[in-house]
């Protein structure tokens, strides 16, 4: 009969054979503080409109709430390190800044297939029950990764690895098997505040705390309504997610560009022109982002984000793109088009307001005309 140490070594070998970059093991049935931290986060309303987080709060509180028989958690990481500094595009205001993780295939699909292959191999060898999770499930991967020694949660609350910096996708296999755990990772942030200081919307109330309602990733992806006025200018040309706090981390000096072809950026998504993205209708949006995580936000929210970036471009020639969307069926798009036009061409904005504001049916869009 194999020992917990031997089983842990075997499970790590299988994970690496399945193509994961790193793997560590921790107990899944021990007490931890992560559940209480999450309850405070939700209790303070910092989760914003992510109602699913509140709805699944009890299941998220501890791994055994997901599966009472879980004894061990095998945490795997898949490297998606970029070839270039993600912050460089922020100076090219006529181009769209898309978060590194979303520039090619949906990582959920890549990780889930690999996790199933890895977990299946472990189950066949040992007979132990297993369940696999990526971040669409109510399981707290980052605290588990910290506890397993794979990395630590930095002051920006994201995982940091000494070998891969900020650029790891996480997956978890829970198992009823008793596996020898690895030692937790210690915090290596020290006195560094780079991730806190670079945030354009001041989304960190304090080190190791985040208010999602102020985070550009939340605003461009999870937020279903208009972008709050105070965040529109700070968004710059970020139209899907934000990498600032990740990209600035000094530990990235040890990271390397990912060798995973599915995560190499599509040429069409490395600095696409805002003028072209603004013209996408629903069918064109779905086709352009087929297989991409961006597809899940839908065309209207996506074009809303593009229009905010248009308004921040300082390129008056792009005003035509905003005008063309003033009659869009989506009030979310119309409202953002009004703001963009007001930033780019005030004379034209005044002329369009005279013609349109009085006949606009949506209260939210009428408010945009009044406040722009």
Tell me what you see in this structure.
This protein is α+β, with helices and mostly antiparallel strands. Among the domains are: 4-82 and 104-175, NADH Oxidase; 273-365, no CATH class. Helices cover 41% and strands 9% of the residues. It is built from 18 helices and 8 strands. The chain has helices at 4-17, 34-43, 51-55, 57-60, 63-66, 107-126, 141-148, 194-198, 216-222, 229-235, 244-247, 274-277, 282-288, 298-311, 319-324, 331-344, 346-356, 363-371, and strands at 22-27, 72-79, 97-98, 130-133, 152-153, 159-160, 168-175, 238-240. A 4-stranded antiparallel beta sheet has the order 1-2-7-4, sandwiched between helices.
What can be said about this structure in brief?
With 372 residues, the chain is α+β, with helices and mostly antiparallel strands.
Note the main attributes of this structure.
single chain; alpha+beta; 4-stranded antiparallel β-sheet; 41% helix; 9% strand
What's the total helix number?
Answer: 18
Low-confidence runs (pLDDT<50, min 5 residues)? none
What radius of gyration results from the CA coordinates? 22 Å
> Which architecture name of one domain does CATH use?
3-Layer(aba) Sandwich
Shape, principal axes of CA atoms: elongated
Biggest sheet overview: 4 strands, antiparallel
Q: Average pLDDT value? A: 95
The CATH topology of one domain comes to NADH Oxidase
Cα distance, first to last residue?
72 Å
The succession of helices and strands, N to C, reads HEHHHHEEHEHEEEHHHEHHHHHHHH
CATH class of one domain equals Alpha Beta
Strand content: 5-15%
- The residue fraction in helices comes out at 40-55%
Helix vs. strand class: alpha+beta
